[in-house]
């Protein structure tokens, strides 16, 4: 190859090398320049989330149910009422996938409401996070703030709860349960739906879920979260007031009483003979007075039947109404469906029907099933909150959804006031001498009540004890207050549940 050809090829190769080099520089600086600038910027700029201060939860008198305190140099959530308020406020915890999906402003490192009002009003309480953008060297030194967007604190919430009443109800219930070793619930609410107290026991200190948090003076029996979660016997995380399904027993008799009056099956002067027992084939349906004392009441009307909680009267009342009417009136008074309270985890309860029994159990509905239904037994199930609401509706003719926060709309059930007055007369007699609620006789004439004793299982287990008390606060029925007490396997409602209500009554009568 001559010199001229060698020169030509060398020139060509050089041009190609230069072209490749220029192309590479162009690619790195122009095409990929933005990418590398971003990488470099990423090494020097850091964004830090500013978590907002969580909103405060107060009672109706501005006393704290949930607040924020400086503890150990950190701002932490604190529940002064501890186990007393756990059934209302719930607790905080690390979010799971569902929490993150529902909470757009939450991240995996934040804490979110896991139960109670903390969960129900998570978005309101959370606030809006802020952001700090800081510039620093690759080694993380010489930080300089570039921009700051301050967080906005969460909204404060004022509830309908009366903290002093909540404490009184909880302590009274807890002391009673210490004697029985059982569990229970108390609900105190106005007819207008305002929930003044809502208690479930055994309970827990929600401060246990706050890392390095402060314990309440009402810290309870559990020392750490593990022991709390693992206790499958006491089930302290289970909110019995809104989630527990129980046979209501005789507190339910208010429903067939008003139903029979409204439908004209009976009136105030209608009489039924207390035979002590009814037998259908091999089955026996007895009255407590015969079974316990060997006595019968003779001819009785609706007022005395309520006062004495006479099962024979209500067996016959149920038969006169029929199962379809019992179902309809039960549903009218909110049984078998959620009440709509602003708390997560509420149960529907259960109202049995002939169709349900045949489909799920494979048996037809018999008259004996109607008898059991009419006295609040059998497959009928309700929560303490539902019984509280049912009682309020029967004595007022108003249906108001229970609320811990805010006011509720009320629906007029269009009940006859004369029929309501008859039921109230029977309830007044129940807590007067001669009635079943003997611990409350000192309040005779000032309150209305209904006792309940619901069989839970076989002879080896005691009955669930119930008590419902209506306190007429003034002429406006909406302001009347209903107390409902449940003691699981406590025995007789009059003997076990009524004393809890008795300890609560003075506060309601004198201070509310």
From TrEMBL:
It is found in: Cell membrane; Membrane. Pfam families: PBP_dimer (PF03717), Transpeptidase (PF00905). GO terms for molecular function: penicillin binding; peptidoglycan L,D-transpeptidase activity. Residues 185-505 form the Penicillin-binding protein transpeptidase domain. It is a single-pass membrane protein. GO terms for biological process: cell wall organization; peptidoglycan biosynthetic process; regulation of cell shape. Keywords: Cell membrane, Cell shape, Cell wall biogenesis/degradation, Membrane, Peptidoglycan synthesis, Transmembrane, Transmembrane helix. The chain crosses the membrane at residues 12-36. One of its GO terms (cellular component) is plasma membrane. Its main location: membrane. Residues 70-142 form the Penicillin-binding protein dimerisation domain. InterPro entries: Beta-lactam/transpept, Beta-lactam/transpept-like, PBP_dimer, PBP_dimer_sf, PCN-bd_Tpept. It comes from the Bacteria. This is Penicillin-binding protein 2. It comes from Candidatus Collierbacteria bacterium GW2011_GWB1_44_6.
